[in-house]
Amino acid sequence: MSCKIHAENSDSIIERCWPSGVKKTHQRIDIFLILYHSDEPLSAAEIFDKLNQKAPKEKYAFSTVYRNLLAFEKVGIVTKTTLSTEDNAVYELKKSSHKHYAVCTKCHRKIPIKTCPLHDISAAVKDSLPGFEITGHQLEILGICNECKNK
């Protein structure tokens, strides 16, 4: 999916970014929009909380959120990652490029790293392991963010 962030309303986001072949339900659209507007990966529990804050009368079931995240993962529109600072997996929409994060070990904030530092390393690994096909990679930098350092 190549869906870059633009300032626009929800209907035009869905029209422009909704993956073909994925059934549109109001639950899926709401989950998709929460992921679309998020600056960092979110756990299913965080998405569940945001949904219920957004539409308290709707009362989403946690199982609905989880099932829809699994469906999104199956069709390849979300990335599921388990970070060492999280007890649960986190999810984010696959946009134009993949991301790596610096994670604060105090507040657990996930700060995107602007470029992928692993491209050169991937080439070196590929050269040293003939026949090995690299299908992806993960990088997580742990530390303390400026806000926590200044407290």
TrEMBL record:
UniProt-listed Pfam families: FUR
Cofactor list: Mn(2+); Fe(2+); Zn(2+)
CDD domains linked: Fur_like
GO molecular function, a single term: transcription cis-regulatory region binding
Residues bound to Fe cation: 98, 137
Entry binding sites for Zn(2+): 104, 107, 145, 148
Cofactor note: Binds 1 Mn(2+) or Fe(2+) ion per subunit. Binds 1 zinc ion per subunit.
Keyword presence, Metal-binding: yes
Any one Gene Ontology BP term: negative regulation of DNA-templated transcription
InterPro entries: FUR, Fur_C, WH-like_DNA-bd_sf, WH_DNA-bd_sf
This protein's UniProt keywords: DNA-binding, Iron, Metal-binding, Repressor, Transcription, Transcription regulation, Zinc
Lineage: superkingdom: Bacteria
Similarity section: Belongs to the Fur family.
Name assigned to this protein: FUR family transcriptional regulator
